[in-house]
């Protein structure tokens, strides 16, 4: 399974003088789960809309499953499912009727649609409420109904825009489990989010968006390695000393961040606790506590946008 | 750039869904109740009036549509006034409603073109209006037969069916207008108000505006009788911008066989004519053909406007 299903080259979109997406290149292999990450307004949704042919690109081109979404939109859209950021349904219809409508639009026969819908609803655990009006559904149920639609249409590629936004932790976990199981069934999934934590567990690779560009594309480990620099963080509690000055020159220290009230986060390349301890004591400080931990990915992510944010 | 696949894929699915929605919506029920009540009132008044004057007219059945008994106006003028309201009620939130419910991006992600969505919505609403009109028409025919004991004759049937078709086109103009507003204006309430405002201007105030504008463009010179004619003609041209004027002319021509012209007529033209003798149906249709084409053109124009704007619209709200 190493055929490329999505290939984007030099994708560009301008709204007036504002460049929303500025020359993006990336490709997605079949069966992958790719996370598009970035702050709001970084160009994630615009990129997704261009992939689907719902917005015309100002430059560059896209090939999805060997087809051009601008020239052959029907064939592309038949195989690619899209779950919008704020997904809406017809409130006066039941969940099942809503799916039946889109099933007819995508050209499924009546019997085939009924069968697919029942299976999809079962999979997203909405069978019990399938015949209730969508107006009674919670936010999480609507998102799951949206996923049921993609399942029902048997899409090969699913593009989910902010699937976890606005969900409580429990629903988020359920949704991510669902995405994981879709991926196991062989679906290629593109999902966007502005919270790394929420999606890092399901993505094979991530693309970091910033100001209309992809700043990084690769696996979590590669991201950690690239940004890690200092792969360890020592949390120090000490009195009577300003670590910012005292330790800066020490060997192996990448940076020192004060955290108020005699606490500091020291980023290091390796475990330098013994040296640090000696240094603090020699400088006349009272060392109270010292903890070593690995850099968390979300810290790395934050730093990425701090470091690269001003470049673009 | 050529796109592949039929733009009509999904049109019928959208149309039938829209029609089903309209049929069951409270909005439609209310407005049809209004139309039905006024229609029955108008026909009842007409029947009472016709009873007294049975022997006067060979086209009694058509009189059902046009006879007015004070204070009620005739059925035809009722329809001319209320039908736009029905069409606006069905069309004002066609497109912006989908954005409001956030269903637009999901719908457009289905393997259909935008064309299908817009055209399907138009067809769906038009289908509902057609069903409502047919029901009204059958109701009137039934009431006429019941109370007057008089079945419609062949020419009468043809004329009233032609009238029905013209009425549908007239409703289509307003539906296209409402849908154009629903595409242009993001808020459904604003779109409804804009459409209603235009409806009020064209159906109530236009007949007052036309003479004023005509007076400014071609003023009447009391010493030159020809200026009187040109003033009248200018006035008529301006009045005909309103679809209601066109529809009024169509219905008066079709429903009254003795009508010979919609414009000014000269004594010389009447020479040898049998005053009040009915015109053949085809002749009436020929006279009124420009008006019908005008209505049709207005419908197509407004729909095209909505179509062009909708095609270029950004999907995200």
UniProtKB/TrEMBL annotation, chain A:
InterPro entries: AAA+_ATPase, ABC_transporter-like_ATP-bd, ABC_transporter-like_CS, P-loop_NTPase. GO terms for molecular function: ATP binding; ATP hydrolysis activity. It comes from the Bacteria. Keywords: ATP-binding, Nucleotide-binding, Transport. Residues 6-236 form the ABC transporter domain. Belongs to the ABC transporter superfamily. This is ABC transporter ATP-binding protein.
TrEMBL record, chain B:
The chain crosses the membrane at residues 75-95, 116-140, 160-181, 193-217, 288-310. One of its GO terms (molecular function) is ABC-type transporter activity. GO terms for cellular component: plasma membrane. Keywords: Membrane, Transmembrane, Transmembrane helix. This is ABC transporter permease. It comes from Roseibium aggregatum.
